[in-house]
Amino acid sequence: MSMSSSPPPAHVLLVSAPLQGHVNPLLVLGRRLASRGLLVTFSTVPHAGLKFTHGDGAAVAVGRGTLRFEHLQGGTLWPPNDPRYCAPTAGGEMLLRHLEDAAPAALAGLLRRHSDAGRPVSCVVSAAFAPWAGRAAAAAGVPHAVLWTESCAVLSLFYHYFYSLADFPSNNPNKAAPVDAAAVPGLPPVAAADLPALIHAPENLIWRQVLVADLRGLRDTASWVLVNTFHELERPAIDALRAHLPVTPVGPLFEPDNHGGGVHDDGDGCTAWLDAWSPGSVVFVAFGSLIKPSRDETAELAAGLAATGRPFLLVVRGDSNNQPELLPDDGGRCKVVEWCEQGRVLSHAAVGCFVTHCGWNSTTEALASGVPVVTFPAWADQPTNAKFLVDVYGVGVRLPRPMARDAVSRCVEEVMSGPEAAAMRARAGEWKAAASAAVADGGSSDRGVQGFVDAVLSLKGAGDD
C-alpha cells in the first residue's frame, strides 16, 4: 500500500429482510456503530409496505462515522414496486421463499461493487431470519455476524430444542407440564403453551426452515451473535447460552426519536393528541406490522376500551378491512391511526398502559419506556415474551383468548388502577432505568457494542498488514 494514500475505513454492511420488525433494530445498531467511527452501509429492499425513507445512495453523518444506504437489488430479486411485497400471504411466506432464492446473488453483487469502489466490506451483519446473508458473506470470504432480533431466552429455547439438548413438552395446548428448568439453563420453567410457535410448527413451514438455517449459521459460520437485549434483563439466559454461542447483548436497540426507519415528524398527529392528556392516563393499543385482528376482535377490543372511560390510542392497519363503524365515537377520547411511531408514543408521559401482541421490539420498547402492559400474543416468539413480561419482569397481565370486551376492560383496569398497578408501574420504572443504564457510556450493552467495533477494527488492521 502506498504511504501517500490513506487506507479505506473499516466498513460494516448491515443486511435485513424487508420486514419492519427486523429493519428497525438493525438501523439503530447501524447508527451506534457509525457513531464510533465506522463506515456503515445499510441494505434492504424498500417497498410500499415498509416504513423506510432513505433513498438508494443516501448517506448521513453519525458521530465520527457515516451511515450509508444502498438498496439490495438486481438479478431475479423483485423490484421495490413489486406488489408481491405487500401480498396478503401467510406471514410473509412467499417473500421469505423468494429471498432464499434471489437475495444471495444480489448480496454477492453488492459486496463486489463495494470492493470495486474502494470500500471493501470488513464484516457483514445480518438480521435474524436472513440466513442467505451469512452464506453469501462466507462465499465471499467476509466475516459474518448475526443480530438476533428476538430475546436471548427464545434463542436458548430454539437452540436447545433443535440440537436436542433438553426435553420439551409435546405440542398439546392443554398440557401444562413445563420444560425442566435444569434442562434449559438460565430459564424458568416454560409450559408448552408459552413456547415459541416455531418449535412445534410443521417442518415444511418456511419460517421454521429459515430458523433452522439461521441456527446452523449461528453455530457454524457466525463469528458474533449480537442480541437485542441487555445483560441486566436476561443475565441468566445470556450467561448460560455463552457455553454454546458467542452471545453479546447490544440492546435495547430503541431510540424513540429515530424509530421507524428515519421518519421524524409527527405526521400521524399522535404527539399533539397525547399532549392533551394527563400523565399515565392513555391506553395505547398496537399489534405490530404483521398481526391483523379480525372484525369481531376489533369490535370487542374497541368496546372494551370504550367501557373503561379512559382515553385510548388505537393502531388499526390500513389493510385490515375493519370498518370505521366498529370504532366508538366518543368526542375525542379515542384516536385511531393506521400507523404511528411506536417508540415515540410509548415514551410519551401520557401513556400509562400498552396493549400489545408482545413482539420482541414492542416488548423491549415497553420496558425501555417504563410502560406496563396487557399482553395478547398471537404466534412466533410472542407467547414466550408475554410469559416473561407477566411472570418474570412483573409488568403486566394476560388478556385471554378469544378477545372479549369485558376481559379487555378488566385487564386494562387491572394495569391502570388495580391492587397491583402501583407495583407494576414501579417495576416498569426500574426496567426503564436498567435499560437506560445498559446503553449509557460504560453500560453493559455499550461495552458490547464497543467490543464488536474493536473486533471489526482489528480485522481491518490485519487486512492492511
From TrEMBL:
Keywords assigned by UniProt?
A: Glycosyltransferase, Transferase
State whether keyword Cell division applies: no
Q: Which Pfam families match?
A: UDPGT (PF00201)
Stored InterPro entries: UDP_glucos_trans, UDP_glycos_trans_CS
Q: Which residues form the signal peptide?
A: none
Record EC number: 2.4.1.-
An example Gene Ontology molecular-function term: glycosyltransferase activity
PANTHER family membership: GLUCOSYL/GLUCURONOSYL TRANSFERASES, GLYCOSYLTRANSFERASE
Q: Which family does it belong to?
A: Belongs to the UDP-glycosyltransferase family.
Q: What is this protein called?
A: Glycosyltransferase
Organism in which the protein naturally occurs: Urochloa decumbens
